[in-house]
Amino acid sequence: MKIIIFCVVSLLGISQYAFSALDPHTHHAANFTFVVESEKDGKEVQLVATFPSQDIFGFEHRPKTVQEKQAQRDGLKKLRAKLLGMFQFHSKLGCSGEISSLKVAYLTEKKKPKSKKHKHHHNHGHKSKKKIAEHSEVRCALIWQCQQAVHGSRLKLLVRSMYPVLKHLDLKVLSDHKAKIGKDTVIF
Ligand SMILES: [Zn+2]
183 by DSSP, 3-state: which? Predict the structure, then answer.
């Protein structure tokens, strides 16, 4: 059973990027997928997090002007500085985390005919005459090593207090223990 679970976790870990490149993303929503490694006795937690670029540096297209390049750099720098602080593991666990990657991923989608409804709004700077709408998101990977297994412990998320513009968090936990997901908490 453990082997099966581990394979599923690995596949999901790899395909996460592929899937999100195909799906239209949701604005003002961040996506977090936590993986509690059963092979590491629950003492290692990995996270793949995606944030809408709009909410991190103000636009989604590739930066063209000096101002846009600066805004993107500043927004990413601020996110990098705040990122680990968004996740409060119980202090008794002795978890220490690090950011293993943080980068902007650009997604393009073909515009649908006018009659069809869009899955999300386009009123944030996409030019209506363009045939291709450019979207982007900031993708981050984090990893925590803990002294004790995280099973049964509560993780507090301070994401919304740091970025109030993020109205929705989509949380998932992949683990061989049943996790409980709250609005701004995860119990592993
Ligand atoms: Zn978009």
Answer: coil
Q: Which amino acid is at 109?
A: E
Tokens of 91: 């202090």
Q: Where are the beta strands (DSSP E) in 84-182?
A: 87-88, 96-110, 132-145, 154-157, 168-174, 180-181
40, 78, 62, 65: which is closest to 176 by C-alpha? Answer: 40
The Cα 13–Cα 90 span in angstroms is 25
Q: Note the pLDDT of residue 31.
A: 95
Distance of CA 6 from the midpoint of ligand 1 (Å): 33
How far apart are the CA of 181 and the centre of ligand 1, in A?
A: 26
Instruction: Supply 161's token pair.
Output: 């207090």
Interval between CA 72 and ligand 1 midpoint (Å): 15
The per-residue pLDDT for range 106-126, each reduced to its tens digit, is 987 766 555 444 555 555 555
Contacts for 66 with CB less than 8 Å, ≥ 6 apart:
none
CA angle 110, 131, 71 (to 5 degrees): 90
- pLDDT, tens digit, for every residue of 147-183? 999 999 999 999 999 999 998 999 999 999 999 999 8
